[in-house]
Amino acid sequence: MPLVTPLSPEHDLETKALAEFFNETLGFCPNSVLTMQRRPAISKAFINLNKAVMANEGRVTSALKRMIAWVSSNATGCRYCQAHAIRAAERYGAEQEQLDNIWEYRTHSAFSEAERAALDFSLAASQVPNAVDASIQKRLYEHWDEGEIVEMLGVISLFGYLNRWNDSMGTSIEEGAVESGEQYLGKHGWEKGKHG
């Protein structure tokens, strides 16, 4: 049972209008947003931040942003966000081979060196204590410019917020996210856990 019960999508009409963004990314409005709307200023600010972070400004694709989110969520152990991130990666055109082998991104041929550098950055930045070091920085600058690095850290930071929100809330996971989690992550032990 979640710590705080999500409200109806009709509770705050401004949040509802902004949340249409998630119908494209996930196919539904997340229960996390429905919980945030108990304080509509939080739900609206979150959705606007999400839109800004996920906008494409450079070569960091929508699919890669969602894989960065998955690595970050996997590092922190948030099963809710793991399933959401892999679902969004699928919906935003990640290659099937990448989706099937996300756990092996460091060695699998479906991932480029630039993608590996981005995903290793996500892993290092999501750890406590933070593990971003000169080696990570060097690899990033071999493939990405400073604006693209800012985009990546925006995703990592956004999911840091979401990982803490959803794991603390025990947010109930939506059926579509469960399907994606089981399909792509289940073979490595993914399950709903407290989000059931």
Automatic annotation (TrEMBL):
The keyword Oxidoreductase applies. Residues 40-120 form the Carboxymuconolactone decarboxylase-like domain. It comes from the Bacteria. GO terms for molecular function: peroxiredoxin activity. InterPro entries: AhpD-like, CMD-like. The keyword Oxidoreductase applies. Keywords: Oxidoreductase, Peroxidase. This is Peroxidase.
